[in-house]
Amino acid sequence: MAPQCLDSSWPESPPGLVDGKFGHLPAQEGARRRLTSRPQALVGECMKEQCGDVQLEPQECPEEVVEGLQPGAFKNNYFFNFQILTDGDLPKSTDSLDANHLQKLIQLLESTDDPLIQEQILVTLSNSAAFSDNQDIIRNLDGLSVIGKMVSDSIPKVKEKALNALNNLSMNVKNQEELKEYIVHVCREIESSPLDSELQLAGLRLLTNMSVTNNYHPMMTHSIPYFFHLLSEGNERTQIQVLKVLVNLSANPAMTRHLLGSQAPSLLSLFDNCINKDVLLRALVFVTNLNKNMKNARGAIIQDQYNEDSIFSVLFGDSTQYAQKLASLLHHPDTEVKEQVIKIITQQ
Predict the structure, then answer these.
(1) From CA 345, how far away is CA 194, in angstroms rounded?
(2) I want to staple 312 with a disulfide (CB 3.0 to 4.6 A). Which of 45, 111, 236, 306 is the partner?
(3) One-character DSSP codes across 63-75
(4) pLDDT at position 317
(5) β-sheet bridge partners, residue 47
(6) Domains in the chain: how many in total?
(7) Contact criterion met (CB below 8 Å) for 9 and 42
(8) Higher pLDDT, 78 or 313
(9) Residue 281 forms part of a structural domain
(10) Are 277 and 271 a contacting pair, CB within 8 Å?
(11) Which tens digits make up the pLDDT trace of 49-106?
(12) Is residue 285 in a domain?
């Protein structure tokens, strides 16, 4: 049985897609099959992949893909005093944007220095990227590099909108191949952003999508210690998002040593009945994956390699606190939590 990924069921499955629930799919191969061109036009709850917590994170309204252009995005023949686009140039809904419309938006994004205009274009491109055909069109128009440059902008709001757009565009294998060049920079942005900020969350969302397969995990290795810092210091939103990345990394056996060697003395504080279920369940899946990888390593992982504050020592050392925490969680009111705890206990 492969290490598991957390997944959420689709709000409504487009034709050909399969509903799913927590932790029953092969980790990387399942994600690889689904990271392909497919219908993605949903209004309502965010679209989320079945494996690896891949999610499509729309702009401006965290729980829905906006149908239509953002309110106030266009004034005086669109985008304030810019005359490049006329009233008849753009349709009312982002699902009706064709290659010509998208090209004009990308050209305007590249030519303007006005941050308000940049934000509005990025919002529109992000929403249009909810549709798989547009993901390919934007890539073919060199839109990925134009949007990617915005990640280096000095204005946090522009960076955030650019990261959200790249996040939606990353729901595509070919796009991911081009977007990989931004991973290290995104990791730096996450580390330098204010704790729990929207900018930091936008960066983590993009890493969540980029970590659904093993291909780009090595590029995130140096940020693993900071991920655990966020897990310790961040609020619940940050904890959930960074755990999505950590769960994806833990599904890759090649990342096990890097994860086990990280210092996370506060990890066990998450194993508590009063912790938010979304945080707790992901923390348990993370540990389940590490347990599975440890068993498969068959003694190749040596205890002397890790210090007393490492995840290895916390989970696999001579601590009784860990066992006590697991025993207490057997009385958790949620069935999924109890099932995950039982998996961990039976792995030992």
Answers:
(1) 38
(2) 306
(3) T---SSPPTTS--
(4) 81
(5) 56
(6) 1
(7) no
(8) 313
(9) yes
(10) no
(11) 334 555 544 433 322 232 233 333 333 222 222 223 333 444 545 556 899 999 999 9
(12) yes
Partners of 56 in beta bridges: 47
Label residue 318 by pLDDT band (50, 70, 90): confident
Q: Helix, strand, coil % (nearest 5) of the chain?
A: 60, 0, 40
In the block, tokens 């996450």 appear at: 190
**Better-scored residue on pLDDT, 343 or 68:** 343
Distance of CA 9 to CAs 13, 17, 61, 332, Å?
Answer: 9, 10, 20, 23
Confidence band, pLDDT 50/70/90 cuts, at residue 296: confident
DSSP string, 98-110: -HHHHHHHHHHHH
Contact 36, 133 (CB under 8 A): no
Q: Is the pTM of this model over 0.90?
A: no
Distance CA 203, CA 151 (A): 10
Yes or no: say if 140 and 176 are a contact pair by the CB < 8 Å rule: no
Strand partners for 55: 48
AA identity, residue 338: K
Q: Are 288 and 4 in contact (CB under 8 A)?
A: yes
**Cα angle 248, 138, 13; round to 5:** 55
SS3 call for 331: coil
Structure tokens at 36: 């392909």
Domain presence at residue 42: no
Kindly give the pairing relationship between strand 55-56 and strand 47-48. antiparallel
Asked if the structure places residue 209 within a domain, the reply is no
Q: Which residues contact 73 (CB under 8 A, 6 or more apart)?
A: 79, 120, 123, 124
**53 DSSP assignment:** T
Q: How far apart are CA 331 and CA 73, in angstroms?
A: 51
Residue of 298, 301, 278, 291 whose CA lies nearest to 322: 291
> How is residue 274 written in tokens?
């009063």
**DSSP class of 38:** -
pLDDT tens digits, 123-180: 999 999 989 999 999 999 999 999 999 999 999 999 999 999 999 999 999 999 999 9
- Among 57, 38, 60, CA closest to 48: 57
Domain membership of residue 300 as a residue range:
239-348
